[in-house]
Amino acid sequence: MLESILYVEDEEITAQMIGEILNDYCENLYFAPNGKIGQEIFKKKKLDLIITDIQMPIMNGIEMIQKIREEDKDIVIVCTTGSCEIELQKSLSNLNVHANIKKPINIHTLIEFIKSMEV
C-alpha cells in the first residue's frame, strides 16, 4: 500500500468514483480540483504518486507538472486525458510522466500501475 496519493481532477463525479477506488491503495488520499491547488498540496505533503488530469481550469495538468518538476524530478506522475494528440504525448514524455491513461479511465490499468509501485 502506498502512503499517499494526490489525485488532481476537475470533474467531480470522476474524482469521487476514482477516489473511492484509490482509497483502497493508499493511507492518505489528497484531492485537488485544478493544478494550482495540486501544486500547493505537493509543496505541503510527502507524496508517493500524483495522478492528474490535463485539461482543467485555473492551471492545467501540464503547467502543474512543469512546476512540480522544477522541485522534484523523480516523483511518479500519471496523467489521465481524453486527448491522444502527438504534441501532448511528446510534452508528457519530456516531463518524465510515468504513464498516460486515456479517459474514460480503465481502472484496471490504473490499479495495475499502482500495484507495480508497491513492490
From TrEMBL:
Record keywords: Chemotaxis, Flagellar rotation, Phosphoprotein
- What SMART domains does the record tag this protein with? REC
Q: Could you tell me which SUPFAM superfamilies the record lists for this protein?
A: CheY-like (SSF52172)
Which coenzymes or cofactors are required?
Mg(2+)
Q: Give the matching CDD domains.
A: REC
Q: Name one Pfam family in it.
A: Response_reg
Q: What are the Response regulatory domain coordinates in residue numbering? A: 4-118
Mind telling me which InterPro entries this protein's record contains?
A: Bact_response_regulator, CheY-like_superfamily, Sig_transdc_resp-reg_receiver
The modified positions for 4-aspartylphosphate read D53
Q: Which GO terms describe its biological process?
A: archaeal or bacterial-type flagellum-dependent cell motility; chemotaxis; phosphorelay signal transduction system
Q: What is the name listed in the Swiss-Prot or TrEMBL entry for this protein? A: Response regulator
